[in-house]
Amino acid sequence: MTRSSVALDDALEFLHFGFREIVREPDRILARRGMGRVHHRILYMCRRNLELTIGEVLAILDVSKQALHRPLGDLVRAGLIVAERDAVDRRARRLRLTPKGRALEEQVSGMQREALGRAFAVVGEQGAHAWVEVMTSLGAGKTAAKLRAAASKRRALARRKQQARRRPA
C-alpha cells in the first residue's frame, strides 16, 4: 500500500467515525419518534429553504418520489410539516415546518451544529475552511447548485404572486 493509499484510508476512517458521532444522538431522538435520518434531512431542508415544493425536495435530496413519500407522510401526520397548495401553481405543494417541526429540527440539527462548532474551534478558521472545501469537492457543490436553482424558482414565483396581486380585478 502506498503512502497516499494509507492516508486515504485514514481519511475514510475519520469520515466514518466523525459521521457516526455527529448523528448518534440525533438518531436516538428521531428513533424514539419512529423516524430516521431521511426525516431529519427533510426537516432540515424545509428549515433552510422556506416553502420548498415537493419537486424541489426530490431534486435537492436526489431521491425518488417513492423514497420521499413515506417519510414525508410521516412528518405531515406527526404535525411537523404542512403541505399547502401553491397560490399560483395549484399543481405544486409547498412544504412548511410547523412550530413543532421547527423545534424538532432545531433540537437535532442544533446538536450537530454544536459538534461542528466545537471541532472548528479546535482546528481553527483555516482548518474549518479546508473542511468546507473538501466537502464541497465531494458533492456539496452539486447540492448547492440545486439549492440555488430552487431559490431562483422561488424568487420568480414570488414576483409572479406580487404581480398577480397588483393586477386590478
Description:
- With 169 residues, this protein is mostly helical.
- It has one domain (3-166): Winged helix-like DNA-binding domain superfamily/Winged helix DNA-binding domain (Arc Repressor Mutant, subunit A, Orthogonal Bundle), CATH 1.10.10.
- 78% of the residues lie in helices and 7% in strands.
- The protein is built from five helices and three strands; from the N terminus they run ααβααββα.
- A three-stranded antiparallel β-sheet has the order 1-3-2.
- A hairpin with a 7-residue loop joins β2 (81-85) and β3 (93-97).
- It is globular.
- The model has no long low-confidence stretch (mean pLDDT 88).
Concise overview:
This protein is mostly helical and 169 residues long. 78% of the residues lie in helices and 7% in strands. The termini are far apart.
Topology:
Blueprint lengths: L2 H30 L4 H12 L3 E2 H8 L3 H13 L3 E5 L7 E5 L1 H68 L3
Antiparallel strand pairs: 1-3, 2-3
Helix pairs in contact: 1-5, 2-4, 2-5, 3-5
